[in-house]
C-alpha cells in the first residue's frame, strides 16, 4: 500500500472567513453560497485537535505539504478523509526532521490504523493512508502528535471506515492475517538483493514464521470449511518460512523463500474471506506485488 505524507502547520487556524461576492450571480444563489460558506467556516477545526473517528475535508489538496485546519463533517456526508489513529512521538530529545518524523509515521500509522479498521481490503478504492505530523516550529511548542488518516486525493467517499460489527471468526482471521503482513513489511531489509543482506532476510523470515504460527493456532477455533483449508495451507507455508530463516546459504534461502512468499499470496485467501463474509477485492498494490 502507498503511504502519503502531509505535515502539520505550526500556525493555528485563521478565524478570517473569505467574503462572498454577489456580483452577477442571482440573489438565491448568493444566499445559498453564503450559507454554504458559513457552514464550512463553523466546521473548521485546527489539525492539532483532530481525534480518531473524525471525518474531514482538507482546505488544500490531500497531498499538500502543510495544512493549518480542516473542515470536520458528519461521516454520513461525502468527505475526503477520516482520522483512524493517533500517537505521540516519544524518545526524541530533538526534532527528528521532516524525514525522521515521516519515517516514524510510516512505521506506526499502519499498526495504529488497524485498531480502527481491521480489514484494509474494505477501504474504498483510491483511499490511501496519510498522516499529519509535527513541524520543527510546532515541536518547539511541545507538539509530538501524529494523526493517521485514510484519505482520497481524487473524489470523496461516505460513511465511517470503522469496524464495529465483526463477529468472532472475522476478528480472529483479521488479527492473525494483519500480523503476518505486518511482520513481512515491517522487517523488510533495505537491501533489494538477498545476497546483499542474507542475515536481514533470514531475520525477516523468522518474524513471518512466528506470526504465521500464531495465526494458524488461532484459526483452529474457526471451523468453517474454506478457512480450515486455508489453515492447512498456511501450516505448510509457515514451515517454508522457518526453512528460510535457518537456511545455511543463499541458494537454500531462495528455494525456501520462493515457497514461503508464494504461500502468503493474498489470492489464496479469497475463498476463506468470502466464507467469512469479509471483503474479497485484493487491494491493487498487494495484487501488483504478488503478480510480479
Biggest sheet record = 8 strands, mixed
What is the CA-CA span between the terminal residues? 15 Å
| pLDDT averaged residue by residue | 85
The dominant shape is: globular
Lateral strand order in the biggest sheet: 2-5-3-6-8-7-1-4
Elements, N to C (H/E): EHEEEEEHEHEHHHHHH
Low-confidence segments, given as residue ranges, are 1-28, 30-39
Number of strands: 8
- Measured as a percent range, the helix fraction is 40-55%
Count of DSSP helices?
Answer: 9
Structural class: alpha+beta
Beta-strand share of residues: 5-15%
Return Rg in Å: 23 Å
Descriptive notes:
This protein is α+β, with helices and mostly antiparallel strands and 292 residues long. It contains 9 helices and 8 strands. It has helices at 27-42, 97-113, 136-140, 168-186, 198-219, 225-245, 250-263, 270-275, 284-291; strands at 6-8, 44-46, 55-58, 66-67, 69-73, 81-88, 127-133, 145-152. The chain has an 8-stranded mixed β-sheet with strand order 2-5-3-6-8-7-1-4. Helix 4 packs antiparallel against helix 5, helix 5 (198-219) packs antiparallel against helix 6 and helix 6 runs antiparallel to helix 7 (250-263).
